[in-house]
Every structure is written in structure tokens, then in C-alpha cells.
Specification:
Length: 883
């Protein structure tokens, strides 16, 4: 073998070695588990729906991603690498010996044997190289393909254009990176998104987001001020909280004996004290000081969580500034809830697509269609309504705003709730898609509403629900503004059809006629007629000629000849639950004749499910025509005509209710008087006996006087509800000049409202007395903040309605509710009956519950009286004594 031939052979061996090294490196890279990529997208997320926005410059692609995609298309790549590596190893073992296969003359003369072995090795090398040449050539070509793929990845990854297997690899890598945000593998639809057509809309939204008087800036300012107010109120509370409360905040037995002598008399003082000061006190070491601070912080967090995010009653600097922010929002906000929601989302999209003009090669990845469809619709809406994205003109406020707030707290608190709300307050999750879409698309015509009427999101939804469905039951919990929802729906219908052609009839109890007259005039520009008293026929004649609103009692509907109205509103609709009653038949006739009907009741179910079903049959006779229903099936079946929201769902700003059951131990005189009442068998005498003890101060009355005195010290006014006139007379006698007025069934509606009006601005400790049957419905008493219910009532709804007279929109203080229960009397037995009825209501009518009730039955007052009297006679031994 010549030296030239040997040199060529060794070169081929070296090339094989290099190729084997490249193959091994490629194999290692292809099997490396640390090649994950990363993406830093912005995204929308609601429940299970995700939409990711990915600018291409913000993705770190996995190293070797394209190369792995190409390698997956070469089924024998691993085999080729292995064969070449094995051949290269054998060749490398032979090369040291084969290097001597072309010796010089002397070597050939004196080392012939060595030379021969070298020649044999060289021949073996050549044979190995020849044998592996096809595999090596194929491996060389495939490694070139991988190199091209790597260079292509360095130049830029495309999810859309290019070879299908490479875009598939990129999509899979991106999906893997995005699913790390979701927390689980999900299928993603990945497609291009060109933001450039939306540059104008997004730029307007960005300017709106930064505008001093724009909603985003006002909302951020309001949130900051609310945080300040909550912090101030929590500080004030902790300053009043004794240090003994620290033990209640932790299971540890903290040593607090040395705190008060050292001047640390409240939780606030302990929270602010440096740890070094605490450890100077007797018996307090580092560990105890740490626990004291931890307990104080726990109390602070709990107090902050319980504190309502509301303006409040104290005109602090933060509260006044917050009110100015709300007033600015009121002057600038003219949108319907759906429009407001769209505009807010457009502002949010600015953060999703912060630089839309930088490139048109954005990528969107999504798990479903809902959110992305909404985004594209919002962008199209913004392009069609650019004026609604313009920053508002400055709105001036003045110092009198605080006085206006105190006069109209519900208006301002509603505005604040709207400003802060993330959503639009919609409900209707059980509605079919077509109905829900129709409700969302409907824009209420507000031309017949007064300018200062502000509908909160859930109220607008309720009004639109009534318009779209034509006949419904509005079952919102008491205090949520059913009246304004009904009037808004009626005003819309009148505005669309013409006032003269729209006769709106309000059917209600006589006790709330005055309230309806005030509310209708306060909220609408429609003519209002009251068909009550001697002029009722004249009022009905005028209304039938001009259209507008006519307010009529149930008795009036029964006795008068009323032409078919266009809209019927039935307030306290549970009063027509008995289909055989004459007033129910009269109301049913008017409901059937009207194209639109809205039945209002916060207690559609008081005793039996059948009563609720009767109300449903008034608005849709076929809905429950057949079959018996479980509670879940019942609620699902009536969803198209029944809408209910609870205070806890939509009125976050209500200060809250502290309900206390005051158990009263009867005095000896009380017990003797009660025993006599039970012996008489007179049910009403038994119920009122703990308050009517003759010639002695009843224990219940003593407790009432204590509560009134406490209210006076706290700067509060009081409403006392009782069923009985003799109890009212006893209260009038004992409370004297502190009684502002008394509401009974004999009092004319105008006088009832006048008595309620006295609560506003009344001296602390002032009391309004009311028969619960006369003042427990239809009147707004939120100027008071202490409620006393003297005795339990026969229906849970009666007490709930009475409490809702005070705890409703416009209430600025926490409400203290006291239920007085005479221990071991009929009061206690009634509580058991009330609890049974409440469970029935929860199962069938309260949307937030899902319990099934299989044994719902009627508990009438007569039966309740019989059961309790029998039980009390047995307990007191009266049956034995009579034998």
C-alpha cells in the first residue's frame, strides 16, 4: 500500500469518526429531557375557557425542536447512528496498527512481519469503511437535514406557514408551555391573530383607561379610598376591643395580665406596640409577644373581612372624597349594563394586546369559542361605538353632595356598587340561550325614567327579563328594589308603544298605595293615578283616557270594572296565592287580559309548594300543568318565569345584620299570667301573655326598655314590631315621648308613610311602633337601625319582610335585630314550627339552596295553635288538673 493510499484510507477513517461523533451528539440532543420551551402570554380566563395571546417575539422555543420533528420522520436514524458508531469503534481500534501499512525501504527490510500485520489491519479498515459506506452516506444526509432544521429554527419559528410537520411541532411545544398556565393538558386551537385592524379601538380604550375622569381611574381611586375607610374603621374597632379578645383569636392561652397595667388597654395598642416593649412586661417573653402580635393581626384581618365596603355615615375626608368620585361617575355614566361591561372589557384588552401595531404576526390559542367570540364582538362593538370610548368631560361636585348622600344613600351606594362591579350583575344561568341573548341585546328605553334613576346591573337585568318574557314572577329578596325594576320595565314598554296606548295597572294592598304613588312619581315621568277612596272611579276614567300608571288595591280590583291594561304589576303577590279567593280571581282576570304581567313577592312560598305553583300558573298556565316535582326539578322548570336574587349575592355594601335571639325568663307574675292564658285556651291571649302581665312590669318589656336605652347611647333609632294592639298600647304607655308614631291596620296609608318619615333625623332612642301586619310590608324604614320583634310570627316570611323594611338599599348602618322569645312558652314551640316552614322555602324557592324536601306539608295557623296549646297544657299539667 502506498503512502498516498494509506493517507486516503486514514482520512476516510477520520471522516467516519467525525460522522459518528456528530451522530452521537445528535442522538444525545434528541433524547435530552431538558429542552422545554417557555411562553409568557397574556390571557383571558373564565371557568374552563382560556384564550392566550402570544406575540411571536415573546416565546422561547425548545432547543432542537425542528430537528426532533425531522428526526421523527427518519425511522432508521437511531439504527444508522448505532451502525456508524459501531463501525467507527472497530475502525478506531485498527487505525493505530494500520498506520504502518506503507513503510519505508528499511522498515520493509527489517520489519516485514510488522508491516504485514499493518497491511492486514489496513485491509480490515478498508473493508469496514466499504461496508458502512451506504449507512454513513445516509446518516450524513440525514444529519444535514437536521442541521438545516436547526438553522431554520434559528431564523424564526412559524405556527402557520412552512412544512406541516414543523408547524405541528411548534404548535405542540406551544400548547405544552401554555398548559402549564392552565395546570393540566388541554386541547388548544391555535391560529393567527392580526391586531392591526383594532389599533384604533385599542388606542381609544388606552386613552380612556388613563383619563382622569374616566371610569378605570375613578374605579381605582374608589378602591383605594375604600381601603382607607375600611382600615380606619378597623382601627377604630380595635381601639375599642379589650385585650381579652386576644385570647379568643387563638387556641393558645396567652398571658395578658400585664398588658392593661402597662397602658395597653386595647387590641390596637397591642398591635402597635414594638415587640421589645412587650417583652419588658412581666411574664411576657419573645414567644408570647410573637403570639400577641399574631392574635392582634388575626383580629384585624377578621374585622377587615367583615367590614362593608361602603361610604358609611361618618363624613371623614376619605368618605367625602369617595363620594366626590361617585358623583363624578354619576355625571359621566350613561351606559346600559351590557354597554358598560363591553367598555370595561375593551379597557382590559389593552393589557392583553399592549402593542398591537408592532407586528401583525400575533398568535391566539384557545380552549373554546366563547371567550374569543366575545372578544371579537367587543372589538367590533368598539369600532361601531367609538364615541362611547371617548374620555368624559370633567364633572364638578360641591360640598352639598354629602347632604344629598344622606338624603339618598341608596342612590349613591348603588352608583358605587356599579362603579366597583367587575360584572354586569346578570343572572339567568338556567335560561335558554335564546332568551338570555334577547335579554342581553335589549337596551332599555329610559326616556320615561327620571334622570337621576340609576339601575344597578341586576336591576336592569330584572327589568329586561320582564320585558322579554312578558309575564314573570320577580322574587328578589326584600330590599333589592323590585319596585324600581317593575317601573323600569313598564316605562320601557310605554316608551316603545306610546304612553297614551299603555295603561299600567299596579295591584297592591291598601297599606302600600302611598308608597307606590311616591315611588312611581320619584322614578318615572308617567302620569300617576291613585284609584283609592271616594275619587277612585274618576282616577280610573282619567287613566284609561291618558295612559300611565294607576294604583289600585286588591279590593278595588274585586269591586270595580277595569278595562284590560297593557301591563299589570302585582305587589305582594303572595296575597293572591289562594285561587278561590275573590281578589285572586279578580287579579287573575286582569293578568290574563294583559300582554305583560309582573308579579312581585319576596316570599312566593309561605306554607305550601302548591301556593307557589298557583302564582306560576298566573303567568304561565302550562308550565306546571303535569307531574310532581322534586325541589331541583321545580326550580329548573320555573326558571323561564321566575327570577330571584338574594341580598348576599348582590348587595355587598349592606352593613350587615346582627340577629340576636333574646331569651326572656318570665317573672313569677309573668308565669302566673301565662298559665291563666293557657288554661283559657285562647290562642291570641297565650301569644301576647308575656307582654300583658297586669299590675307588674313584664320581663319582655324590661328587655325592650334596655334595648331602647342602648340604642339611644349608640345614636340609633328603633322600630318595634308586634302583632297585637294591646302590646302596642302597653309599649306606648311605657315608652312615652320616645314614640315617634304608631302604625296599625286602622291607620290610613298616608298617615303610615308620614309616621315612617319621622324616623329621618329623629333623636337617638326614638321609637316607631308598628303592627307587623300593617308596617311589615311595603314601607321603607331604613332610617332606623335597630329592630325588635316582640313575639314570633306564624310565618317566617312575616318576620323576614319586617326586617327587610330596615335592612334594604339605603341602609348606611349595621342593623341590630332582636327577636324576643319567652323561655319555655308558646314562643319556643313556635320557633320549631317556623324552622320547618323555612326549610320548605329553602328547598323550592331560594335559588342558593338545592336540598330536596319530600315531606313538605301545610302548617296553618289553626293547626299550629292546636298543637302548641295542647303541648303547653300538658307541660303545665292543666289537663290533669281538669280531670
Amino acid at each position: 500500500m502506498t503512502s498516498t493510499q494509506l493517507s486516503e484510507l486514514l482520512g476516510r477513517a477520520s471522516s467516519l469518526r467525525d460522522l459518528s461523533a456528530r451522530g452521537s451528539a445528535a442522538a444525545a440532543a434528541l433524547t435530552d429531557g431538558t429542552h422545554g420551551g417557555a411562553a409568557h402570554p397574556t390571557y383571558l380566563h373564565e371557568e374552563e375557557d382560556w384564550v392566550f395571546f402570544i406575540p411571536p417575539w415573546d416565546v422561547t422555543w425548545p432547543a432542537g425542536m425542528y430537528a426532533r420533528a425531522e428526526a421523527a420522520r427518519i425511522p432508521d436514524l437511531a439504527s444508522l447512528i448505532g451502525r456508524v458508531a459501531e463501525a467507527s469503534a472497530r475502525v478506531d481500534a485498527l487505525v493505530p496498527q494500520a498506520r504502518h501499512a506503507a513503510p519505508g525501504v528499511l522498515t520493509r527490510l527489517f520489519a516485514g512481519a510488522r508491516t504485514e500485520r499493518a497491511r492486514q489491519a489496513a485491509q480490515q479498515v478498508d473493508a469496514e469503511l466499504r461496508a458502512v459506506t451506504p449507512a454513513a452516506a445516509r446518516l450524513f444526509d440525514q444529519l444535514a437535514v437536521l442541521s438545516v432544521a436547526e438553522e431554520r429554527q434559528r431564523q424564526g419559528v412559524s405556527l402557520i406557514d412552512g412544512p406541516a410537520h414543523l408547524t405541528a411541532a411548534a404548535r405542540e411545544a406551544l400548547a405544552t408551555a401554555l398548559c402549564s398556565h392552565i395546570g393540566q393538558p388541554r386541547e388548544l386551537t391555535i391560529e393567527p391573530f392580526d391586531p392591526t385592524p383594532h389599533v384604533g379601538v385599542l388606542e381609544r380604550a388606552r386613552l380612556l383607561a388613563e383619563a382622569p375622569g374616566g371610569e378605570p381611574v375613578l374605579r381605582a381611586r374608589a378602591e383605594k379610598l375604600l381601603d382607607q375607610l375600611v382600615s380606619q374603621r378597623v382601627d377604630a374597632l380595635l381601639e375599642q376591643l379589650p385585650v381579652s379578645a386576644l385570647r379568643q383569636a387563638t387556641a393558645d392561652r396567652l398571658r395578658i395580665e400585664g398588658l392593661e397595667p402597662a397602658g395597653l388597654t386595647s387590641v390596637a395598642w397591642v398591635a402597635e406596640a414594638p415587640r421589645g416593649r412587650l417583652t419588658q412586661l412581666p411574664g411576657i417573653g419573645e414567644r408570647t409577644a410573637e403570639r400577641l402580635h399574631a392574635a392582634a393581626e388575626t383580629l384585624r384581618r377578621e374585622a377587615a373581612a367583615a367590614e362593608p365596603r361602603a361610604i358609611g355615615t361618618e363624613p371623614t375626608a376619605a368618605a367625602r372624597e369617595l363620594l366626590r368620585v361617585v358623583a363624578q361617575f354619576a355625571g359621566a355614566d350613561t351606559l346600559e349594563p351590557e354597554e358598560r361591561a363591553r367598555r370595561r372589557r375593551l379597557v382590559d384588552y389593552v393589557q392583553l394586546i399592549p402593542d398591537p401595531a408592532r407586528t401583525s404576526e400575533w398568535i391566539v390559542a384557545r380552549t373554546g369559542d366563547t371567550l374569543f367570540t366575545r372578544l371579537t364582538e367587543d372589538l367590533a362593538w368598539g369600532a361601531a361605538h367609538t364615541a362611547l370610548l371617548d374620555p368624559p368631560a370633567p364633572v364638578s361636585t360641591h360640598e352639598a353632595t354629602w347632604d344629598d348622600y344622606l338624603a339618598r344613600p341608596a342612590y349613591y351606594q348603588g352608583l358605587l356598587a356599579t362603579l366597583l362591579a367587575d360584572g354586569d350583575g346578570e343572572d339567568g344561568h338556567d335560561l335558554d340561550a335564546r332568551t338570555l341573548e334577547a335579554i342581553r341585546e335589549l337596551r332599555l328605553d329610559r326616556s320615561l325614567l327620571n334622570d337621576d334613576v340609576h339601575l344597578r346591573g341586576y336591576q336592569s337585568f330584572g327589568a329586561r327579563f320582564a320585558v322579554v318574557r312578558s309575564k314573570i314572577i320577580l322574587g328578589d329578596e326584600m330590599g333589592l328594589g323590585k319596585t324600581v325594576q317593575a317601573l323600569a320595565a313598564a316605562a320601557h314598554i310605554a316608551a316603545v308603544d306610546g304612553v297614551e296606548r299603555t295603561r299600567i295597572l299596579v295591584l297592591c294592598p291598601a297599606s302600600v298605595v302611598v308608597n307606590w304613588r311616591r315611588e312611581a312619581s320619584k322614578f318615572t315621568r308617567l302620569p300617576v293615578y291613585v284609584a283609592h277612596g271616594t275619587t277612585k272611579h274618576d282616577a280610573v276614567d282619567a287613566w284609561q283616557g291618558t295612559g300611565g300608571i294607576c294604583i289600585l288595591t286588591f279590593d278595588g280590583a274585586r269591586t270595580m270594572d277595569i278595562a284590560a291594561p297593557e301591563v299589570v304589576i302585582v305587589d305582594e303577590a303572595h296575597m293572591i296565592k289562594n285561587p278561590q279567593a275573590r281578589r285572586s280571581k279578580a287579579a287573575r282576570t286582569l293578568i290574563d287580559a294583559a300582554p305583560h304581567a309582573l308579579l312581585m313577592t319576596g316570599t312566593p312560598l309561605e306554607n305550601r309548594v302548591e301556593e307557589f305553583a298557583t302564582l306560576v300558573s298566573y303567568v304561565d298556565p302550562e308550565l306546571l300543568a303535569d307531574g310532581e316535582w322534586t325541589s331541583v326539578e321545580f326550580r329548573r322548570q320555573i326558571a323561564p318565569v321566575y327570577l330571584r336574587r338574594n341580598q348576599s349575592d348582590v348587595l355587598d355594601e349592606l352593613p350587615g345584620v346582627t340577629e340576636t335571639t333574646d331569651w326572656i325568663d318570665l317573672t313569677e307574675a309573668d308565669a302566673a299570667h301565662y298559665r291563666d292564658a293557657v288554661a283559657s285556651g285562647n290562642w291570641m291571649a297565650i301569644r301576647r301573655a308575656p307582654m300583658t302581665t297586669p299590675s307588674a312590669m313584664p320581663a319582655k318589656l324590661e328587655r325592650i326598655l334596655e334595648i331602647v336605652d342602648e340604642a339611644a347611647e349608640a345614636g340609633r333609632t328603633v322600630v318595634i314590631f308586634t302583632y297585637f294592639l294591646p302590646v302596642i298600647e302597653r309599649l306606648e304607655q311605657e315608652l312615652g315621648e320616645r314614640v315617634l308614631g304608631t302604625i296599625t291596620g286602622a291607620l290610613a296609608p298616608e298617615a303610615r308613610q308620614a309616621a315612617v318619615d319621622k324616623l329621618s333625623g329623629a333623636a337617638p332612642g326614638s321609637v316607631l311602633l308598628s303592627q307587623i301586619s300593617a308596617g311589615g310590608t311595603g314601607l321603607n324604614m331604613q332610617a332606623a337601625s335597630v329592630v325588635i320583634i316582640v313575639e314570633p310570627q306564624v310565618k317566617p316570611s312575616i318576620e323576614a319582610q319586617a326586617l327587610a323594611r330596615v335592612n334594604r338599599m339605603g341602609q348606611t348602618r349595621s342593623v341590630l335585630a332582636h327577636r324576643l322569645i319567652a323561655d319555655d312558652t308558646a314562643d319556643e314551640r313556635m320557633l320549631e314550627m317556623l324552622g320547618r316552614k323555612e326549610r320548605i322555602f329553602d328547598a323550592f324557592a331560594r335559588e342558593s339552596e338545592a336540598a330536596a324536601v319530600a315531606d313538605a306539608r301545610d302548617v296553618s295557623e289553626g293547626r299550629l295553635a292546636e298543637e302548641i296549646i295542647a303541648a303547653e297544657r300538658a307541660r303545665l299539667g292543666l289537663d290533669q288538673a281538669s280531670r
